[in-house]
Amino acid sequence: MIASNEELEGHLTRLNRSFERAEDADVFLISMGPGQSPCALSISPPVLVAQVHVAEAPRSDDESSARFMRRLLELNASGLLHSAFGIESGQIVLTAALELQNLDMNELEAVLADLDMALSEHVPGLVSLSKGLGLS
Known about the structure:
By secondary structure, the protein is an alpha+beta fold. It has helices at about 5-15, 65-80, 105-130; strands at about 20, 25-30, 40-45, 45-55, 85-90, 90-100. Helices cover about 40% and strands about 25% of the residues. The protein has a six-stranded antiparallel sheet. Strand 3 (about 40-45) and strand 4 form a beta hairpin. The chain is elongated.
């Protein structure tokens, strides 16, 4: 069980994850690799929230935007185990919430691996699909 920022920091260290604490000391920024946005981890009882910024969300209601959103939903259904794509404040994010009561290092590692996989396997395809939408 992870009940404090100190315990979370200890688990991240044991997992050999590069991280830093944000100015708001309650948020950990986990390196997700070259060219990737960091994953923000924060304890918000009763869950640990993990979130990675992916791209700007489509703003129009045309056919290309519909295809893009459909692809996000398809990936949520079949391409992700512990996380999901969503839209927050006009941005596409990859997010996961883990119940703190039963959270251990293995579950934290599995979620971070799921995020790593999504960023390396799914996001490049989404970026290609978004080029026709003028997104960055």
